[in-house]
Amino acid sequence: MTPTNDMVKALDRWMTKDEAPSLFIGAHIDDAKHVTATRPICHYPLEARYLGHGDIHEAANFACRAPQPM
């Protein structure tokens, strides 16, 4: 696990080395412990927005963007 997908490791690095995480990748895990989807976890107030191409289950196809007005 890397600091990108291990929050404990990222928080430890932030506290001990003053290296704040720039990105976290969240994962949906099914009952069989398989990753079925990933998404970037964005800094507030940004939100993960689909880029319009690629697999909708892969974090790489999303970007952190400002929310659209309602």
Architecture overview:
With 70 residues, the chain is of the alpha+beta class. The protein has 1 helix and 4 strands; from the N terminus they run αββββ. The protein has one helix at residues 7-17; strands spanning 24-29, 35-41, 47-50, 62-65. The strands form 2 sheets. The chain has a two-stranded antiparallel sheet with strand order 1-2. Strand 1 and strand 2 form a beta hairpin. The longest helix is centred in the first third of the chain and has 11 residues, at 7-17. The relative contact order is 0.16. The mean pLDDT is 88.
How would you describe the shape?
flat
Q: What gyration radius follows from the Cα positions, in whole Å?
A: 14 Å
Name the structural class.
alpha+beta
- Helix share bin: 10-25%
Runs in which pLDDT lies below 50 for 5 or more consecutive residues are none
Quick take:
With 70 residues, the chain is of the alpha+beta class.
Write the topology of this structure.
Layout: H1 7-17, E1 24-29, E2 35-41, E3 47-50, E4 62-65
Antiparallel strand pairs: 1-2, 3-4
